[in-house]
Write a structure and sequence with these properties.
The protein folds into two domains: 111 residues, no CATH class; 46 residues, no CATH class. The chain contains seven helices and four strands; from the N terminus they run αβααααβαβαβ. The protein has a four-stranded parallel sheet with strand order 1-2-4-3, with helices on one face. Helix 2 packs parallel to helix 3 and helix 3 packs across helix 4.
Length: 175
């Protein structure tokens, strides 16, 4: 499949492009000397080793995290995840640094770290973080309108301001 780069650049310029970022947005890249954050499977297997009884699938981070939370508690899980992700020990990836300078209206990510926010801060880009609750958004939620860029009230002061949606939620300690 051939990529139409001119069309892509035009869509980004028009605000008609929404990047969806997963864990690989911060993955290590030895070729350029970037030390990124660990991927979910690695985090999951490390967390599973801390449990007395391992869950069925030690590579399933959601399952292992729930198991850890139930046997310990949520603050213990949050602290452990923050320590392992080591956000403060990393700088935003070249990808995040580049994305932070482009005129997106919305960036969706499943990442728990705040490296995108640090890249946006460094670029001087105004943004607002919207965190999806574990149960999802309520129907007809003003937050859904805000994600879509619909202005129904005065909460959205500037429709040009970037909105960063954490689709996977966020650690309480990182917010």
């Amino acid at each position: 499949m051939e990529v139409d780069w001119e069309l892509l650049v035009q869509r980004i310029t028009d605000g008609a492009c929404v990047p969806f970022l997963g864990a690989a947005a911060n993955v290590s890249d030895a070729a350029i000397g970037y030390a990124g954050t660990p991927l979910g499977e690695d985090v999951s297997q490390r967390l599973a080793k801390k449990l007395k009884t391992a869950p069925r699938d030690p590579s399933n981070l959601a399952r292992v995290s729930l198991h850890y939370e139930v046997t310990k508690d949520r603050p213990a899980l949050d602290k452990w995840l923050c320590d392992v992700i080591g956000e403060l020990d990393h700088v935003p990836s070249p990808l995040l640094t580049a994305l932070a300078t482009l005129p997106f209206k919305l960036i969706v990510t499943t990442n728990y770290d705040r490296l995108l926010e640090r890249a946006l801060d460094a670029a001087g880009t105004a943004y607002r973080v919207l965190v999806q609750p574990p149960g999802g958004f309520e129907p007809n939620s003003k937050v859904i309108d805000e994600i879509a860029g619909v202005r129904r009230d005065d909460r959205v002061q500037d429709s040009r301001q970037l909105r960063r949606w954490r689709a996977g939620g966020a650690s309480r300690r990182l917010d």
